[in-house]
From TrEMBL:
Name of this protein: Acyl-CoA dehydrogenase family protein
Domain Acyl-CoA dehydrogenase C-terminal residues, every copy: 239-370
Record flagged with keyword Ribosomal protein: no
Gene3D superfamilies for this protein: Acyl-CoA dehydrogenase/oxidase, N-terminal domain (1.10.540.10), Butyryl-CoA Dehydrogenase, subunit A, domain 2 (2.40.110.10), Butyryl-CoA Dehydrogenase, subunit A, domain 3 (1.20.140.10)
Annotated Acyl-CoA dehydrogenase/oxidase N-terminal domain residues: 26-89
SUPFAM superfamilies assigned to the protein according to its UniProt record, in alphabetical order: Acyl-CoA dehydrogenase C-terminal domain-like, Acyl-CoA dehydrogenase NM domain-like
Keywords: Oxidoreductase
Tree of life domain: Bacteria
InterPro entries assigned to the protein according to its UniProt record, in alphabetical order: Acyl-CoA_DH_C, Acyl-CoA_Oxase/DH_mid-dom_sf, AcylCo_DH-like_C, AcylCoA_DH/ox_N, AcylCoA_DH/ox_N_sf, AcylCoA_DH/oxidase_NM_dom_sf
Any one Pfam family match given in the protein's UniProt record, by short name: Acyl-CoA_dh_2
Amino acid sequence: MLDRSSCTPTEAEIVARAEAMVPWLREQADAVEKARMVPAATIQAFQDAGFFRILQPRRWGGYEMSPNVLNKVLMELARGCPSSAWNVMVLGVHPFEVGLLDQRCGDELWGEDTSRLVSSSYAPFGTVTAVDGGYVLKGEWLTSSGCDHAQGGAFLGGRVAENGEQVFRSFWVQKADFEIVDDWFVVGLAGTGSKKLVVKEAFVPAYRSHVIAAYGEETHGHVDNLYKMPFFYVFYAAVSSVIVGMARGMVDLYVEHMKPRQNLNQAVGAAVNDPFIKGRLGEASAKILGAAARILHNTDEAWSFAERGALVPIDVRVRHFATNQFTGGECFDAAHMIFKKTSTRGVWLNNPMQRQLRDILVGANHITQNQDNIGDLLGGQMLGNPMPAANPFGVRP
């Protein structure tokens, strides 16, 4: 594959590159699961295609495109190999976060090599202590997807006492400051290589950190237009997009499975004539299409503010943040609906549909898909309730 990363592609071109990779990714999906990580050659192919530059600032060789370009790429890649697409999502969204930080961070990360990648683990597993000039981190951070490929270190989340409050921050930690421990033995998305990072003790200068949910003129007024999008929204929408792609891949596999199949126990004969097989496929496809359309609509609406230099209003942010979180549940329901119609044939380990379903299950368990806790936030906001004290928007009630 030719290295085209130095040329800024159009949206159509870069999405077409992702679509063209789907058959190849599907061929290697089983090997990726068995290896429990994405091969370096696949990551390089993604580099060559420019996927990691979509949200990277232009001053450091990036394309600085709308987040929907990344979302559409993820919706294609995950049809072929969910674990590989998950790595593109995680490693591809962090250039956006660098765009929020002090310019020194981008210079340090990409000054010599603009292709360096950064992984993450945002759940505040470890401890953080504020010290003169920065912070000291200690502890273990779980599930850092793609960390083996991230020579640029990792963003780690932590709560730290500041001005009498517990503040949730993200810290850019250098690769030399942590050890990767392979503990990623899981039921699905095994190929993501989401291993544990162990930090014995690391000092992080203050300029390499930001309040992860902060959003307003004081934090976003100075950044380029793309980075006026709320980071949490961009990250959550990217996760939702991967899950949509996984569900689309399930439909692809189901159609291929059913077209030649004969129903030996039913009078209809060919499976394509079975009204229940057709009905489940139609309903599942409608659910997946609805989820995809919502993500793309929400992101376009947020982008319509950011691209003209405006911040996204709070009511719009709440609606976007909340509604995207229903994606995982809807896509798993859709995938499970058609998987059940494969009957016994679907449960064999050599049938890729069982792996696709397990991957969707694990993706739907991600914290960004927490539909159980998010409906009341949206409904309360619509009914005029004050914002709860604990909210992901950095807004005080």
